[in-house]
Amino acid sequence: MKVIVVGSSHGGFETVRGLLAEKPDTEIQWYEKGDFISFLSCGMQLYLEGVVKNVNSVRYATAKGMRAKGVNVFVHQEVTHVDPDKHQVTVHNLDDDSTRTENYDKLVLSAGAVPATIPVPGNDLQNVYAMRGRDWAIKLKAKTVDPDVENVTVIGAGYIGVEAAEVFAKAGKHVTLIDMLPRPLALYLDQEFTDILTETLKAHNIYPASGQAVKEFVGQNGKVTAVKTDQAEYPSDLVIQAAGLKANTDWLKGTLELGKKGLVNVNDHLETNQPDVYAVGDSTEVPFAPTGKKRQIALATNARRQGRVVAKNILGHDMTMPAISGSSALSVFDYHFASTGVKQGTADALGVKSASVFVTDTTQPPFVPETAGNTKVYFKLTYDPSNKRILGAQIMSKRDVTANINAISLAIQGKMTLNDLAYADFFFQPGFDRPWNIMNVAAQKALKNEQAK
């Protein structure tokens, strides 16, 4: 059996890995349009801040290493067309500009997504960058030490934008963080958390220009000099566009069935509408456990799960994509936070009726001094008031307590209720935590609120 895998990031890598783990003699052709396989953009901040020294190490695998395992790895070669009837793909060799066709028994498309560009005047000026992929990582690293760059404007205050803002603030630059939403990280955290983080950003020379729409990139001599919004103009020696991603599927129009936002439609086994063609990663939707409906949730964890599910199905197993909770985490200077499932701020858009409870506590008993690591922790639990089923949660502290969110993710997937969580068994040791875990405390408070109604 010959399997062609297109794309070398999370989903493509896990598909190859899954095939090799179970049937290492599978004939695999693995295609990457760039000249470097499996770069992890989620590790870019660590490289830009110097925690990771070598950009070439921010990856899952090397072409040489995978070839040694019997995988036919092709870099700088782009699959440009799929012919499902003939079970063929067209390959464009970017080195010599030649094209050829390759046959397949099974085809896996990990097409991914590309940074969305803002369609305003001046977006073709020099020093307008993106923050995705190895090439951009190398360019951005140079700008962190460029003495001519004093003012950096980041567009988009999601995870990628906030990471970019922190990188350049730590590099001594003045950063403006623009977003159309009223708060930074608004899609990931409710206001109780973002109010604290907004003040943290300001304290580190990052100005959140929230609730503003970009209208123009102003330039001089071909280089960007300012970003103009509907409310103000910000001097800019460097602009980083981080305002979302666009599915890389234009080349599949007319071949595969595409849905909203150009996402590839897949069934529970991740099969497309064409026989023997699968799709994984950021260009697809995944089943969302809190609602039972599909959503686009662009996370490496989801792509890796999809890749393994596809590998199982290709090898003859009957496996469906499990529902996910959409768990994620990030650090913003001294604060560490994580969230999962439904939040108060996203419930309406998801069509979910919800209620929430917010708890502030300390990570350890009061007798443990702050000098020993005892610090505040903020936790918010979201649930369905009709049946008390747990729908989501958010946690934040200057101490890393983010792993608690993994327990909530399991609770969501297991359809647990407030009653289950209120007295769930979690360990206690004063060097680590409180006698009642903050998840217990929140669930107990929520039950009390419901009883008082």
From TrEMBL:
This is NADH peroxidase. Belongs to the class-III pyridine nucleotide-disulfide oxidoreductase family. Keywords: FAD, Flavoprotein, Oxidation, Oxidoreductase, Peroxidase, Redox-active center. Its cofactor is FAD. GO terms for molecular function: peroxidase activity. SUPFAM superfamilies: FAD/NAD(P)-binding domain (SSF51905), FAD/NAD-linked reductases, dimerisation (C-terminal) domain (SSF55424). Residues 1-307 form the FAD/NAD(P)-binding domain. It comes from Lentilactobacillus diolivorans. Residues 331-433 form the Pyridine nucleotide-disulphide oxidoreductase dimerisation domain. InterPro entries: FAD-bd_OxRdtase (IPR050260), FAD/NAD-bd_sf (IPR036188), FAD/NAD-binding_dom (IPR023753), FAD/NAD-linked_Rdtase_dimer_sf (IPR016156), Pyr_nucl-diS_OxRdtase_dimer (IPR004099). Gene3D superfamilies: 3.30.390.30, FAD/NAD(P)-binding domain.
